[in-house]
Amino acid sequence: MNRLRLGVTSRRAAYVALALLTLVWGFNWVVMKAALERANPLSFNFARTGLAVLVLFAALGLRRRRWLPHSWRAVVITGFFQTSVNFGATMMAVASGGAGRAAVLVFTMPFWVLLIAWFVLNERIRSFQVPAIVLAFTGLVCIVEPWSWEGDLTAKLWAVLSGFGWAAGTVALKRFQRDPGFDMLAFIAWQMLVGAMPLAFLPWLYGAPAIHWTPGELACLLYVGAISSAAGFLAWMEILRWLPAGDASLNIFAIPVIALVASMAIFGERLAGNEWLGIALIGAGLAMVAVWSLATTRRTAGE
């Protein structure tokens, strides 16, 4: 068996893993913000992805099985969206804005998944999802304020781009998992290596300063690179084996809530009235779909 299971061997185990991953990724935002108070975002992002790649290839070597991916086309497409766009845009969003605010916008990802999966995976948007999408889109407009080109609009756009990249990478993974010879660990290791290549040139291109490594900075790197990025995305991709892309994405809406509360407590981040309204609308849309998904799962299990 060439699959990396990470203890996820059933639908129930996938939901347990999803709950744990929610906590890890929720606190990941404040850890990144803490790291970027003393480090250039381009330099830290390169270090983060580099450590994640090392961890993944170490795991690949210890397994002593298949090394090469089943498809380089799949690796390049997924790596571009999942690593290059998602990781790069996330780091820029956190560096230029609040961690909690960025997390909320990145986690519009579930709605991008619904739209992209409709075209790529033929997962049709159900009638109950339409009002949820309308609510979330309205909330997104309230937060981004496209009519106002002042303040931290750049940070907001980076965050939205990160969410789109993550969604596209998630749908691509779900599509390529169907291919014969697909191997989870080899695929994620190579897609992260390929996706990290463009990120490696950015510090040099923009003359980013080197990081002054302190124990605290190293601890942040370990959490963000090894635990959240490497182990976290291994768990995420294994979860996608058991749960539909839309359902898995929509059940992680607690992450921006954790990030926002933690950021407010640690960094004193405060939101404007329009941002609270936007967050409430996005949360309402996510909650609608999550409740329906849970009800459908229970109904299916009882049949």
Would you kindly provide a written description of the structure presented here, covering whatever features stand out?
The chain has twelve helices and no strands. It is mainly alpha-helical and 303 residues long.
Structural class: mainly alpha
Name the helix and strand elements from N-terminus to C-terminus, one letter apiece: HHHHHHHHHHHH
For the sheet with most strands, the description reads: none
Report the sheet-strand fraction: under 5%
Terminal residue distance: 31 Å
Mean pLDDT: 80
Give the CA-based shape: globular
Number of domains: 1
- Calculate Rg over CA atoms: 19 Å
Count of β-strands: 0
Oligomer: single chain
- Count of helix runs: 12
Low-pLDDT runs of 5+ residues are none
Question: Helicity range of the residues?
Answer: over 70%
